[in-house]
């Protein structure tokens, strides 16, 4: 009895698992998931085309049930599930998946809306003209064959592929440890690049890209720049950004709509529509009233209706950001080369296809040469027989068996067995004169063909000329215009690109509640109105600051502790004018002890100019604006404030302006900005005005360029104010006590605001209790310095004006009539 122990082999389980897994991985890579670099086909696709060829399903024939094609493919070549074969068959027939479909499908083969194909018992297919080109010359020994899975028949290892399928239709597949994603391209551009490579084998990738600049997807779209394609063509890996094509239309209600006419590659139109709807519901996409998919067999049409007043460019940017209307397509050029997966650049893929086609042409030529020589050999025997026909007839009559006649012929006339056999099979009709002439003509033609085939095989340049002719023919047959446009590169969409740029007012309360409101919510009124309520405030809170800016501006906030913070205006919550606002601590890292004393809008920190600041004690300083562009999490120092002093206000200066300081007691000083040298953020400043012992600085203003054609606005806390010519304020050196700017009796109250006007602006005044009035500047009386002014705003007995902001003249006025307020 045999000892079983002698037949047992000990193996390390780690080694066995490693070897088995590698075997499995290579089988998946080579036999299922990755395309061959020569014909661009996976095994299942190649086997489907072979089965359709055997069923004679050419472009001119009738279609056959897909169930028949799938059955033949699975039974003869591909021993896998029917669903896997049918999925592959459907894919090669879908015009929205393949740039140049290899099959022609009849019936429901799915749609770009995500509809699945019908069952294979309902659909039919046949080869397309492109698929026929993939199989052309297959039966002329142009490629190697191997046994199928059960050794009952042979299948091609690769197809002749007269059509450059790998680049034209692309490929995608997930193997073990790797995946391929080759996008489709325009076949005309591919042929041009191949022709360049044939003429100049040393052509560089940039030179090839002059003919083949980027992928070309079947459903169109726009590729944003060529940098991603250039990287993929150079290294074999890269990403490209693809956007759908859009246009703007006006609907019957007079509102604008964004119409999507092309979507990115492999984007489901219904899912795109649903994603847009989800974005609207979640608030990520604003300004849309309706979205619907109106696509049909003629093409894509997704309509996005905009709300009245919505900025179409902002909404479009939101669609790019928050929906599949803009996608990133990854490129990984991995294909099977000599039985192994390789990452290839553009030139390598073109070279492998070129070499394959050269090999096909040479093998086809050798096959045709062999066939021609074999036929010529037979014709040589027939020519001998026709010249000696009487003797040959006698030999045949005198022979008792076929083999005897064959041997005699071979001996008498030095014929080969094949020639003798052909003579014995010769029909009597071949003896007539016309048939004898045909034999001679055929023989002469074959001799010419043989010479031509030998010349081709002896001259590589003639092979290349034949390949050039093939490429030109393919381009003529299938070349078409690019469907995917190449647009300008896009940077990552910033949040500002997703926000409509509009004019807003921003208010900040004493307890640091902030909000933004559309400026049009505050209608222009006549002088002396009560205004409208700007906020419902909590007890012991009051409105302190109001400024006007664009949603794309920055809000630079200066606090009582001399710190500076900023945030984009669009980050400030948009609320109704009666809302309280959002606590600033939810937007910035502001301490509980700090209070905002000034808010300035900034369009660009690198725009030049200075920030001029003043303290209650009369100090003034200016710091270059760009010093505030970088902020820390806890703010940055804006000014060094000594104990007992407070920051009271700030404004912009150009470097060539006059600075005006006003005290609560109504005294004003005007001096040249040149008297204040630029200082760093940590400086404390210099003396600007010397207020009295019972007085303090209330506000700081600026006269642009020192232009005395302007007028200075002074506003007191009880709503009274006036305009005074700048020329009435003498230009002094800084540090003095100034001159009387406005009388501040009990009726007026203390001075709270100073501003320089041209006269065509509008003003917004805000009270501590939350009332806001908007009035035109030209409704304010012009008076001398030593006067009390007129009523600008009616205030309640326990309310006072806290802030005044100037609106530019181009701000649209909605209503010029006085308003009783609320």
Structural account:
The chain has 822 residues and is α+β, with helices and mostly antiparallel strands. The protein has four domains: 41-160, Topoisomerase II, domain 5, CATH 3.90.199; 245-324, Gyrase A, domain 2 (2-Layer Sandwich), CATH 3.30.1360.40; 368-458, Orthogonal Bundle (Topoisomerase, domain 3), CATH 1.10.268.10; 501-807, DNA gyrase/topoisomerase IV, subunit A, C-terminal (Neuraminidase, 6 Propeller). 29% of the residues lie in helices and 25% in strands. The protein is built from 17 helices and 42 strands. Strands 30, 31, 33, 36 and 37 form a five-stranded mixed β-sheet that branches. A four-stranded mixed β-sheet has the order 14-9-8-17. A four-stranded antiparallel β-sheet has the order 10-11-13-12, with helices on one face. A hairpin with a 3-residue loop joins strand 18 and strand 19. Helix 2 packs across helix 3. It is rod-shaped. It starts with 12 loop residues before the first helix and ends in a 15-residue tail after the last strand. Mean pLDDT is 86; it is low at 811-822.
Quickly list its features.
single chain, 822 residues, alpha+beta, Topoisomerase II, domain 5, Gyrase A, domain 2, Topoisomerase, domain 3, 4 domains, five-stranded mixed β-sheet, four-stranded mixed β-sheet, 17 helices, 42 strands, 29% helix, rod-shaped, disordered C terminus
């Amino acid at each position: 009895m045999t000892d079983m122990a002698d037949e047992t082999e000990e193996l390390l389980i780690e080694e066995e698992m490693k070897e088995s897994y590698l075997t499995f991985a290579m089988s998946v890579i080579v036999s299922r998931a990755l395309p061959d670099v020569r014909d661009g086909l996976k095994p299942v696709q190649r086997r489907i085309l072979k089965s359709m060829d055997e069923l004679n399903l050419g472009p001119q024939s009738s279609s056959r049930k897909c169930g028949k094609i799938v059955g033949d493919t699975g039974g003869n070549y591909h021993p896998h599930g029917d669903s896997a074969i049918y999925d592959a068959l459907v894919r090669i027939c879908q015009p929205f998946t393949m740039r140049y479909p290899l099959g022609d499908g009849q019936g429901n083969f799915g749609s770009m809306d995500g509809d699945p194909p019908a069952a294979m018992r309902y659909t039919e297919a046949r080869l397309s003209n492109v698929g026929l080109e993939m199989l052309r010359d297959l039966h002329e020994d142009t490629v190697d064959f191997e046994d199928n899975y059960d050794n009952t028949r042979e299948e091609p290892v690769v197809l002749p592929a007269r059509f450059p399928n790998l680049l034209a239709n692309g490929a995608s597949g997930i193997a073990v440890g790797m995946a391929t994603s080759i996008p489709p391209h325009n076949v005309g551009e591919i042929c041009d690049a191949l022709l360049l490579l044939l003429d100049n084998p040393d052509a560089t990738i940039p030179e090839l890209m002059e003919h083949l600049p980027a992928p070309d997807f079947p459903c169109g779209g726009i590729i944003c720049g060529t940098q991603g394609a250039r990287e993929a063509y150079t290294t074999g890996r890269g990403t490209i950004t693809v956007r759908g094509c859009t246009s703007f239309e006006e609907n019957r209600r007079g509102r604008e709509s964004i119409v999507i006419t092309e979507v990115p590659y492999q984007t489901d139109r219904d899912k795109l529509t649903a994603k847009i709807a989800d974005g609207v519901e979640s608030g990520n996409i604003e300004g849309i009233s309706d979205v619907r998919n109106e696509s049909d067999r003629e093409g894509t049409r997704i309509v996005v209706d905009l709300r009245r007043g919505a900025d179409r460019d902002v909404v479009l940017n939101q669609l790019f950001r928050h929906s599949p209307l803009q996608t990133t397509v990854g490129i990984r050029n991995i294909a099977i080369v000599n039985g192994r997966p390789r990452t290839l650049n553009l030139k390598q893929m073109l070279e492998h296809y070129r070499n394959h086609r050269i090999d096909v042409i040479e093998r086809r030529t050798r096959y045709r040469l062999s066939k021609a020589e074999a036929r010529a050999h037979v014709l040589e025997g027939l020519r001998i027989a026709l010249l000696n026909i009487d003797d040959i007839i006698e030999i045949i009559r005198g022979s008792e068996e076929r083999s005897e006649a064959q041997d005699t012929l071979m001996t008498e006339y030095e014929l080969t067995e094949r020639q003798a056999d052909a003579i014995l099979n010769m029909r009597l009709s071949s003896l007539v004169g016309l048939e004898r002439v045909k034999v001679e003509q055929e023989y002469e033609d074959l001799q010419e063909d043989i010479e031509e085939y030998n010349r081709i095989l002896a001259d590589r340049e003639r092979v290349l000329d034949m390949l050039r002719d093939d490429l030109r023919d393919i381009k003529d047959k299938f070349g078409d215009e690019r469907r995917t446009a190449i647009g300008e590169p896009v940077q990552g969409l910033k949040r500002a690109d997703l926000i409509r740029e509009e004019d807003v007012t921003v208010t900040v309360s004493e307890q640091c509640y902030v909000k933004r409101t559309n400026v049009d919510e505050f209608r222009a009124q006549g002088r002396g109105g009560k205004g409208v309520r700007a906020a419902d405030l909590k007890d012991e809170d009051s409105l302190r600051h109001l400024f006007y800016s664009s949603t794309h501006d920055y809000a630079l906030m200066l606090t009582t502790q001399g710190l500076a913070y900023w945030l984009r205006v669009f980050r400030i919550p948009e609320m109704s004018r009666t809302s309280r606002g959002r606590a600033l601590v939810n937007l910035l890292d502001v301490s509980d002890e700090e209070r905002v004393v000034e808010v300035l809008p900034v369009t660009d920190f690198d725009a030049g100019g200075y920030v001029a600041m003043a303290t209650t004690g009369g100090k003034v300083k200016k710091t270059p604006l760009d010093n505030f562009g970088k902020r820390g999490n806890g703010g940055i120092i804006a000014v060094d404030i000594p104990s007992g002093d407070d920051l009271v206000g700030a404004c912009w200066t150009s470097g060539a302006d006059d600075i005006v300081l006003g005290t609560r007691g109504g005294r004003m000083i005007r001096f040249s900005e040149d008297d204040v040298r630029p200082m760093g953020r940590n400086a404390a400043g210099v003396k600007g005005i010397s207020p009295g012992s019972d007085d303090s600085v209330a506000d700081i203003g600026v006269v642009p360029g020192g232009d005395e054609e302007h007028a200075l606005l002074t506003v007191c806390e009880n709503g009274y104010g006036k305009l005074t010519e700048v020329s009435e304020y003498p230009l002094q050196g800084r540090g003095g006590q100034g001159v009387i700017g406005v009388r501040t009796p009990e009726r007026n109250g203390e001075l709270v605001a100073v501003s320089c006007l041209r006269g065509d602006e509008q003003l917004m005044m805000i009270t501590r209790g939350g009332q806001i009035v908007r009035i035109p500047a030209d409704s304010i009386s012009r008076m001398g310095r030593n006067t009390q002014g007129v009523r600008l705003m009616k205030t309640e007995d326990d309310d006072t004006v806290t802030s005044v902001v100037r609106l530019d003249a181009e701000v649209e006025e909605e209503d010029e009539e006085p308003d009783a307020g609320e």
